[in-house]
Structure formats: structure tokens, C-alpha cells
Amino acid sequence: MLSFFNTLTRRVEEFSPLDPEGQTVLLYTCGPTVYSLAHIGNFRAYIFEDLLQRHLEFRGFNVRRVMNLTDVEDKTIRGCCEAGIPLADFTRPFKEAFFQDLSTLRIKKAESYPEASAPVHIGRMIEMIATLISKGHAYQARDSSVYFRLSTFPAYGQLAHFHLNELRPSGRIKSDEYGKESVGDFALWKAWDEKDKAVGWESPWGKGRPGWHIECSAMATGTLGPSIDIHCGGEDNIFPHHEAEIAQSECATGRPFVRLWMHCRHLLVNGQKMSKSKGNFLTLRDLLHQGWTGREVRYVLASTRYREPLNFTFESLLGARSALQRLDEWTKRLHSRTSRVSLQPIAPPQLDTAAFGRALDNDLNTSAALGNVFEIVRDSNRLLDQEKLSPSNITFLNSWIRQVHSVFHLELNYRRPDLPRKVSSLLFQREQARAKKQWGTSDSLREEILALGWKIKDTRGGQEVSGNSLN
Ligand code: AMP
Ligand code: ZN
């Protein structure tokens, strides 16, 4: 039985999609704010969502995943104003870097990446705000901004599990938000002010820009429809962001917004959330520079279940390195024993190979699933030593590990889907040159690849490439 923990009900629930055919799963995931490079804490969230998507696909669902890019927000606006360049020019390199990092971490591409600044989405945000005003759920205040009228949505607080009366003024309420009817009312449309310089869009309420929450409501319902199956993010998104998304979306569309809310716990450093503001963050590029590979980082972030806190340490990267080596050696050993004729795969009765899928069915228990993988590696190595595995058993194990990789993607010879053809052909030539110990050719091919913007790291398992713009 496939089941997941729902933040809304605080229970583990059996999963079934809204699709009457039981086939398609609609998945919306909050993406990065593109004002700087994403840090590996952000990537914990994206890897969790990747594993979720891939496991659903492994179980036969067709997953339509959408991830937004937050490019209109206080930090992106401040960034472009300080740099004195248009918003799009400021965010572009961070978007590009983000896609490269996704690829280095082997994260599957979403169906689409709507950007808040796209005219179609701005249009939809304005439309949604107008609907909310016409239904009495929103109002324009004296400061010209438009706010959501929280008193019209008594269910507010359902996700974060508090009651509306518990909302009190806090130091975070901005002094420029004057004229709000009630302290918890949040901005849907922020009136332009001179700090915003060239950033702003015309609307029925004057020039301004959307609030972060309405951006996600509009992009989620605009791309996937009013009701979606699963909405994910990191735990810091629960309140106020996702709470606000529910209020806006349900009041605007009149339909239930999301059936299953899933949130990953934070990646910590010395017990504290890894974050830009604390300055305790590492980017993927920092780690690549230190000689770690995308595969090793992926392993660390994937090997703790999403609902457990994960403390980042370099020991965990070393652990990943040695675990992956064990897996690679086992894979090579298996290949060397693989029969050339095709055989009927037969599961070795001594090994519980189904435990892997069962663990993932149980609220995406990735640590138990990988535990099972390494148990199989250990036990089948012993059976191989004792000559107790038949060629059909080996055929089975080969296809079993392919299934494991269809979810975890920890295989050695992974071809990045975004590699330009030219780069992959040079890599291939270099692989051949190295096999023939032609080191001079290998070095000049490395230079050629570097000139195209890709760096190579030679690992025991082979070449690993990473994009090198924005280092
Ligand atoms: P942001 O760019 O801050 O909007 O964050 C993008 C995504 O990363 C959101 O889903 C956040 O909840 C998530 N996130 C941010 N910091 C961490 C962290 N330290 N651990 C896990 N997820 C995080
Ligand atoms: Zn969001």
C-alpha cells in the first residue's frame, strides 16, 4: 500500500490520485527564489520531490510536476536595483545555474517551470486578485496595496495547526503595510514604491507587483488546474506561504486546492537550519570545487528520509563515497558474471529484494530502502563467494538494481540529459584515450571541454562533469 504523511491531517494516508482513471498525479513544488545560487539545503527539498516523483512513476503513475521560479520578490527586486540592471538580466544567470545544478544532482526535469514575471502568469495573478475582491475576500487599503481579508476564511491555520485568534501582531509586520483591516491580512498586490525603481506592472489597483503567495496560487492553478494531488516544499513553507496559498486558491476557485501536503524537514548545520540569512550555507558548486561529485551529494541528501532532520557533515559525504564504491564494485562483479545469453530472471529466494519498494511505499522511507539495497549487496556478495547464485539470479539482480536506480539514480555511468552533443562526444573520446593511457590526448580533450564551459573530475568510477558558469 502506497502511503504518505499529510501535513494537513497529520496522518499517514493511503495515496490515490484525483484522476478518475487513477493514472495521472498532479504535483506542484515551490521552486527557488532566483536572487543567488541555491544552497544544498534547498536541494534537499528538490531531491525529496525528485524521489517522490520517481517512486510514483516506479509504481506506474504518470506524474505531471510543475516547479515555479520565484523571480518577483523583495530579494530579486533589491538585487536588480542594486546592480542597476533589469530584473530579467539579474535573475537569468541564477536560473541557468539552477538548471545546471539540477542536472548535476540528477534531478528529473519538471513538466514546466513557470516564472512569476511571465506576462501570462502576472495576468492570471491580477485576474485571481480581482476575483477575490469581487467575492469580498480581498480589499484595497489606504496604502494602495491589496490585502487578503483573513476573516472571510475561517479555515486559515488548518495546515500549520493553529487557530485564527492566535494570530498576533509580531515584529515582522511591516510598518509600510498601513490600512490593513486586520493584523494577519497579507498582501496580494503590493503598491509600487520608489525602492522598486523600474520593477512594476500596471493593474486595476495601480502600478505594483504581486505578493509571493499569490504567485504560487496563480501558477499552480494556472498550470495544473484548481485541484491538485500533491503540493510540496520545505517545512518553512508551511506557514505562512502554503497556508496563504490555500486561502487564496480556495476562495478564488471555490474548489479544494490540494489533497496531500508534503514537507521535508530542513537540512541543518550544527543543529541550525542551513540558510542564506544565517550565512551557514554551502552551494553545490562549493562542494564540487572541493572534489565531491553530484552523485555523492545526491546520495547524502537522499539517504535520510525526508521527514527526519538531516545534519550536514563532511563525514556523511565520505560515507557516501565509500557506500557508492561498494555499490560500483558489486555492479562490476555482477556484470562480470552476467551471462551473454538472455535468461529468465529468477529472484534469489534467499534475498528480500521487494523490501526496497515496500520501504518507499511507506511514506518514502529512503533510508530503509537504501538499507535494503546494501543488505542485498552484502548478502549477494556472500552468495557469489559461495557460488550460490544461478545465472538467472544474476539476471534478476541486474534488473533489480536498474529499478533501484530508476528511483535513486546513483548509477555510475549516468549520462546527463542536458550535456551538449559536442561535450558528450569529447567525453567519449577522452574515455577512450584514457583507456589506452594516452594522457596527452586526455589532457587536451579536458581543455577543449573546459573551453565549452564544462569541468571534468576523474573519479575511480570514471569522468564526472559539471557545468562551470557562475563559479
Ligand atoms: P527559497 O529559495 O528560500 O524560497 O527556498 C526554496 C525551497 O527550499 C523551499 O521549498 C524551502 O522550503 C526549501 N529550503 C530552504 N532551506 C532549506 C533547508 N535548510 N533544508 C531543506 N529545505 C530548505
Ligand atoms: Zn510556493
Brief summary:
This protein has about 475 residues and is α/β, with parallel strands linked by helices. The chain has helices at about 40-60, 75-85, 85-105, 120-135, 210-225, 240-255, 285-290, 295-300, 315-335, 355-360, 365-385, 390-410, 420-435, 440-450; strands spanning about 5, 10-15, 25-30, 60-65, 140, 145-150, 185-190, 210, 230-235, 260-265, 265-270, 270-275, 310, 455-460, 460-465.
Properties at a glance:
single chain; alpha/beta; Rossmann fold; Isoleucyl-tRNA Synthetase, Domain 1; four-stranded parallel β-sheet; 43% helix
Q: Can you put this structure into words, describing what you see?
A:
With 471 residues, the protein is α/β, with parallel strands linked by helices. The chain folds into 3 domains: 17-264, Rossmann fold (3-Layer(aba) Sandwich); 269-408, Isoleucyl-tRNA Synthetase, Domain 1 (Orthogonal Bundle); 421-467. Helix content is 43%, strand content 14%. It has helices at 40-58, 74-83, 87-104, 119-134, 212-224, 238-253, 284-289, 294-302, 314-336, 355-361, 366-385, 391-408, 421-435, 439-451, and strands at residues 3-6, 11-14, 24-29, 62-67, 138-140, 146-148, 187-191, 208-210, 228-234, 258-264, 267-269, 272-273, 310-311, 454-459, 462-467. The protein has a 4-stranded parallel beta sheet with strand order 4-3-9-10, with helices on both faces. Strand 5 (138-140) and strand 6 form a beta hairpin. Helix 1 (40-58) packs across helix 8 (294-302) and helix 13 packs antiparallel against helix 14 (439-451). The chain is globular and about 80 Å long. The chain starts with a strand and ends with a strand. The model has no long low-confidence stretch (mean pLDDT 94). The chain binds adenosine monophosphate and zinc ion (ZN). Zinc ion (ZN) binds next to loops.
